Amino acid sequence: MPYPYPALTPEQKKELSDIAHRILAPGKGILAADESTGSIAKRRQSIGTENIEENRLGKHTPSALVIMENANVLAHYASVCQQNGIVPIVEPEILPDGDHDLKRCQYVTEKVLATVYKVLNDHHVYLEGTLLKLNMVTPGHACTQKYFNEEIAMATITALHHTVPPVVSGVTFLSGG
After folding, report:
1. Global pTM value
2. Alpha-carbon gap, residue 28 to 94, rounded angstroms
3. Topology of 10-173 in CATH?
4. What region, left, alpha or beta, does residue 98 occupy, with left being phi > 0 and alpha being psi -120 to 50 degrees?
5. Where are the domains of the chain?
6. Is the CB of residue 1 less than 8 Å from the CB of residue 123?
7. Is residue 174 a contact partner of residue 134, using CB atoms and an 8 Å limit?
8. What is the tens place of the pLDDT at every residue in 25-65?
């Protein structure tokens, strides 16, 4: 259920859109400051789950429930950011762990992005005042099939065209570091 935040004024919308475009200007960008593996291990430990691959990967992951819950968290975050004059960087993370092929990653990426944008709309997030940050559509690290860069690029572009509304200010990619 969407959070009952007041609607943005036209001035707030213009400011958010302008900021999003300035972030994407030549010579500008986004600094990645992700959580360390140690921090993630502590989080898992706090809920009694060992930080091992078997607890993170499966043939049917991510589940529809996990996708929806993460989309709701991203939408709540985006709403709060915008109410405070901050351009949210919406970052649905799809991990490259596992042996999935390029087609599976494209399918999951499209499923995740479609859900995220539906939920952002449900929460009345002003899409023109957002940025999307995601990974390229790639096969899993343990996938034995090799793909050409052009295939990866095409899978990524296709997933974006199928799911990201044209009004979104910009798409940025994870640094892969």
Report:
1. 0.76
2. 25
3. TIM Barrel (3.20.20)
4. left
5. 10-173
6. no
7. yes
8. 787 766 555 555 565 666 667 767 776 656 555 555 677 88
